[in-house]
Design a protein that fits this description.
mainly alpha; 3 helices
C-alpha cells in the first residue's frame, strides 16, 4: 500500500498536529451560515419576513453548540457536558 499524500493537517499548520482544524472550520462555516440566513430573512425595514430562516438559524446554532463541545473536549475544559460529546453529535443529526 502506498503512503498517504497528507497524513495530517500539520503540513498547513507548521507542526501543530494537535490543532482542532475541523471544529474551527465548522464554527467558521456555521457563523457564515447564520449571518447569511439572518440577512436573507430581513426586508428593507430590517424586519423578519421569512420565518423559516429562523428555523435554519436554530439548526445552525445547534451545530455550533456541538463544535463548541468538541473544542471544550479538545482543550480539556472540565465540565459535565464534556463527557457527553458523542451524545451531542448524535442529537445534532
Amino acid at each position: 500500500m502506498g503512503q498517504p499524500v497528507i497524513k495530517n493537517m500539520s503540513i498547513f499548520f507548521r507542526g501543530r498536529s494537535d490543532f482542532p482544524v475541523e471544529s474551527f472550520f465548522k464554527l467558521t462555516a456555521i457563523t457564515i451560515g447564520i449571518i447569511g440566513e439572518y440577512y436573507t430573512a430581513l426586508d428593507s425595514d430590517w424586519k423578519v419576513i421569512h420565518k423559516h430562516n429562523v428555523q435554519h438559524i436554530m439548526m445552525y446554532a445547534y451545530f455550533a453548540f456541538n463544535a463548541l463541545i468538541e473544542l471544550m473536549y479538545h482543550y480539556k475544559v472540565s465540565l459535565l457536558v464534556i463527557k457527553y460529546e458523542h451524545c451531542h453529535s448524535v442529537m445534532t443529526f
